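Why do we care about 3D structure at all? Because function follows from shape, and shape follows, mostly, from sequence. That is the central idea of this module. The next example makes it concrete: a single protein chain, its amino acid sequence, and then its structure expressed as tokens.
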Amino acid sequence: QVQLVESGGGLVQPGGSLRLSCSASGSLFSIYNMAWYRQAPGKQRELVATITNSGSTDYADSVKGRFTISRDNAKNTVYLQMNRLQPADTGVYYCKVPGTSYWGQGTQVTVSS
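And the structure:
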């Protein structure tokens, strides 16, 4: 069982930045691929970014060039740096271990003036 805890969400103006963190329990974090998802009000949850256990990354087209996923295996933590935020980025952001049922509880991101 892996427990994931997200943090770092909040209210930010358009054009602003936030950095989300997801801390994982256990000793196997370094072998997991990790992902960030988000769910906007009234919409399905969508994949935002992934990072493999070797550090390869991939992004949804809507966030390419603005978001950066990274990981610190020594801290059992995956990050999502979000720059040039837009109102369309509003939603609850979740981290997940792909291919498993391990989800965090989510952190709210609201982009509004």
